[in-house]
What we know:
By secondary structure, the chain is an alpha+beta fold. The chain has five helices and eight strands; from the N terminus they run E-E-H-H-H-E-E-E-E-H-E-E-H. Helix 2 runs antiparallel to helix 3.
Amino acid sequence: xxxxxxxxxxxxxxxxxxxxxxxxxxxxxxxxxxxxxxxxxxxxxxxxxxxxxxxxxxxxxxxxxxxxxxxxxxxxxxxxxxxxxxxxxxxxxxxxxxxxxxxxxxxxxxxxxxxxxxxxxxxxxxxxxxxxxxxxxxxxxxxxxxx
Length: 147
């Protein structure tokens, strides 16, 4: 459901990278034109009852065919809400997600940014090697409070 139209190119919505996640997310104009399109596609496919693996395969094919495209220039995604939760499969539970910033890094790897994956208090990649990869930066205050 759309709440209102804006005029600055930013789009905000509650992202669900998995059906259990709750990720209040705002994309700048570049992300609104690229990554947001894929997120909305995923939700449309879920609403049609498609399996997660099938959706992922269609998304990957969409990037390969040019139906979807990675961000073409630097930009920002912000998740400054304190109401973010992600499902972490390795511990089988929802984990609170602190407020943070993300920067587009299409196809980047951990080697590219010189930071080990999920290093404490260090920027790191999410979705490394993928077209929608981002560098996540958690402000020190949020990290210090166990966010």
